[in-house]
Amino acid sequence: MKYAVAIDIGGTNTRVALIDEKYKIEERAQFSTDADNPDITLFKIKQAIERFDKEIVGVGMSCPGPLDLIEGKILTTPNLHGKWHGLCITKELENLIHKPVYLENDANLAALAEAIIGEGKEHNIVQYLTVSTGLGAGLVINKKVFQGAHGFANEVANVCLWDNGPSHGSIYPGGVEAICSGTAIEQRAEKAGLIVAHAGEVNDLALKGNLEAQKIMDDAKLYLANFIAGIQAFIDPEIVILGGSVALKIPGFVEDVESLVKTKVYPVVEPLVKVRKSTLNEDSGLLGAACLAFNS
Q1: Which PANTHER family match (predicted)?
Q2: What kind of architecture, by CATH, is found in domain 121-277?
Q3: pLDDT tens-digit profile of 149-195?
Q4: Which of 48, 67, 223, 275 has its CA 20 to 30 A from that of 214?
Q5: Domain map of the chain by residue range?
């Protein structure tokens, strides 16, 4: 049996998992990420891999970005500081464990998992979107992540769809994340005077007839459909898979978006539009990291 190690370095916690070639998670470890000193976190990763006591073929890893995927480097990240910025993390970890290490962002890894073992496994061109706290994306062609010329392909959060539209954080006004993500839905509702804790509660209010909530949810679905229709035109994917809490936990969201997309493409394309929910759980990023290690 072959084994890979999957690593998810987050701003708060780091997860490390041992995954076999059938994509079963055999063992896992979790510990706090040291936000100021990457050496501490990398040493804990090394210790976890040693405790797994299996011969591994390689390591797939995700960590906060923006990332230089070609050089395997963290460029900058708001939740990690000091020596994390500019760190050639793949080389640093390779020097510790003497195994090949492959870096990707979390959305690309989730996309890869969908394309190899999830809803896209029967397809060659798979577009993935995660609609959750933020909005991320990944494109997989023939079971390989498409990174683009500089490693920034599918960094889509700031794609502007609405002139002088909503904004939050560092997202441009009218960026797709500022309209369609769970954070955007919640914040737009709060600005409208609604008392909500998350996007699902905005949807609940919409279903009860609240006009402000209905407008916010309609906007989220409409602009996401516009965005996907653009993807259909540029890429012609065989399937678009939606993951994340908004897509998976709000009843009818994915189905409504698919219906809207079909009204925004050429008639000959309409029967080819396939927008589906992810069937993988919160471990999709880890599974994608294993896919990366096994297939690189």
Answers
A1: BIFUNCTIONAL UDP-N-ACETYLGLUCOSAMINE 2-EPIMERASE_N-ACETYLMANNOSAMINE KINASE, ROK (REPRESSOR, ORF, KINASE) FAMILY
A2: 2-Layer Sandwich (3.30)
A3: 998 999 999 999 999 999 988 899 999 999 999 999 999 999 999 99
A4: 275
A5: 3-108+283-295, 121-277
CA distances from 213 to 1, 84, 207, 217 (A): 52, 40, 9, 6
40 with 32: CB under 8 angstroms?
no
Task: In whole angstroms, give the CA distance from residue 173 to residue 166.
Answer: 5
Inter-CA distances, 125 with 13, 234, 285, Å:
32, 12, 19
Number of H helices, E strands in the chain: 10, 12
- The distance from CA 240 to its chain's CA centroid, rounded to whole angstroms, is 13
Strands 3-9 and 73-74, by their bridges, are unpaired
Matching fold, domains 3-108+283-295 and 121-277? yes
The pLDDT score that the predictor gives to residue 240 is 98
